Amino acid sequence: MKGIVAYGTYIPYYRLDRRAISEALGGAPGRGTRSVASYDEDTTSMGVEAARAALSAPTAPAPESIYFATAAPAYLDKTNATAIHAALGLDPSVFAVDMGGSVRSGAGVLQAAIDAGRPTLAIMSDIRVGLPGSGDETNGGDAAAAFLCAEGDEVIAEYLGGANMTAEFLDRWRTPGESASRVWEERFGEFVYVPLGAQAWKKALDSTDTTLEEIDHLIVTGVHPRAARAVVAGAGVRKEAIVDEMAATLGNTGTAQAGIMFADVLDRAKPDQVIAVLLLADGASVMLFRTTEAITRYQRRQTVAGQLAGGKAVGYNAYLTWRDILRREPPRRPDPDRPAAPPSFRSEPWKYGLAGSRCQNCGTRHLPPQRVCLKCQSVDKMSSERVAETEATIATFTIDRLAFSPSPPLVAAVVDFDGGGRFPCEMTDVDPDSVKIGQRVEMTFRRLYTAESVHNYFWKARPIRRDS
Question: 409 and 313: one domain?
Fold first, then answer.
């Protein structure tokens, strides 16, 4: 049996109320909210968070490969999946590769992970940006999803089969260097997508001997919402089987959308339910899964519904600033220096994996790692110890309104990790007025800043927020 053995999602903390857009630019007021990645997040950092959630499952095997899909890569030429690999603290033998540039790559990494024949982590991440007042800005969203695929008794969703249809046509595109996509006339996209979706749907059902009555959950999404609605209407499944796209609370998260919707279904699915995932992007892709008894034992770190229920509103001006659409006066401080490649490489386990050291003589933990123990002065008697998944407590903090930050004020805290180790770090996704000594925090992988086109990734602390 092959299929999905673990999964995780990441929905950013911030939400943009669509009414704020219309209040600033005029026009009909929008309804609902969209998810917004913070100023210190990109598709790589969000992919790390989704992958951490997936690998936190007790039954998750160590991945032997990572496939990363995004239509908004943080780097071109350089592989982004290697940063995810480093942040997860994986063995150097684990293969990490990008499959990016398009929304359809999300279906590609999941299919490739299932076909790999070894434990493979498929990660889908996207940040959707449009020109101010555009449909992409209003209806887009930011999120990431990860699925660990393997064979064995712990498969929670068995892969039954699927079908694909491919066509070359110009419906949505942008060239390298452009931040906003362009879209052809809507009727043309619907004219092309609907027949492709219908053909792929029929082929998938026929090849797996699945009847319409057996479909318990149908997920249809893609880059053309109007076409997706038409495909749903013609699918022939029961009305209660149609999965909501979460457009009113999340928005369309592009490459990650099918994964987020799939994870939401898995959060509440029962054994022996058939789930169909249909993606419309440069063609049509259909994948069919059947949940197993193992899903009743599956332990999730967080649910999609729980993440959607939380969140904090962000103003439209702040959102435009975070996306570098609105350029504002920076703090009166020197710009940060570009991170240097050699020291970043030498300190990879610490900088990316947040691995400290523990003295084998007296047991003291050191952050960052040291050769000489600060307590017993033993030399080179250290073992590496990752603390990225370890919770901590705020020992003290300060609110700095002058330090360089795209979203001032900067909250800096000194945190004490459970099991030992004290470390000063930035905080994120936090209300400065709510920070207090003794507050419990967890670590999150973020982008500190970008200087001369080099992204400086490291870890920050954020308040612990549990699903209800």
Answer: no
Query: In sequence order, what E strands does 207-293 have?
Result: 215-222, 274-280, 283-291
* DSSP structure string for 374-398: TTT--BS-EEEEE-TT--EEEEEEE
pLDDT tens digits, residue range 379-426? 999 999 999 999 999 999 999 988 888 888 999 999 999 999 999 999
Mean pLDDT of the residues in the chain:
95
| Pair 115, 223 in one domain | yes
3-state class (DSSP) for residue 358? strand
How is residue 130 written in tokens? 């449009």
Report helix, strand or coil for 438. Answer: coil
State the CB neighbour count (10 A cutoff) for residue 414.
Answer: 16
Name 187's Cβ contacts closer than 8 Å, sequence gap at least 6: none
Beta-strand ranges (E) seen in 154-194 are 157-166, 172-173, 182-183
Q: Which of 388, 384, 309 is nearest to 84 (CA)?
A: 388
pTM summary value: 0.96
d(CA 436, CA 395): 9
| Whether residue 353 sits in one domain with residue 274 | no
**Where residue 375 falls among pLDDT bands split at 50, 70, 90?**
very high
Overall domain count for the chain: 2
Q: What is the pLDDT of residues 20-44, one digit of tens each?
A: 999 999 888 889 999 999 999 999 9
- List of residues 6+ apart from 413 with CB closer than 8 A: 394, 395, 396, 397, 398, 424, 425, 426, 427, 435, 441, 461
Give me the torsion for CA of 386, 119, 204, 210, rounded to 10°.
Answer: -100
Q: Which of 255, 256, 258, 230 is nearest to 243 (CA)?
A: 258
Query: Averaged over 300-328, what is the pLDDT?
Result: 93
> Which structural domain, as residue segments, surrounds residue 389?
341-463
- Give the distance from CA 236 to its chain's centroid: 32
- Domain co-membership, 372 together with 234: no
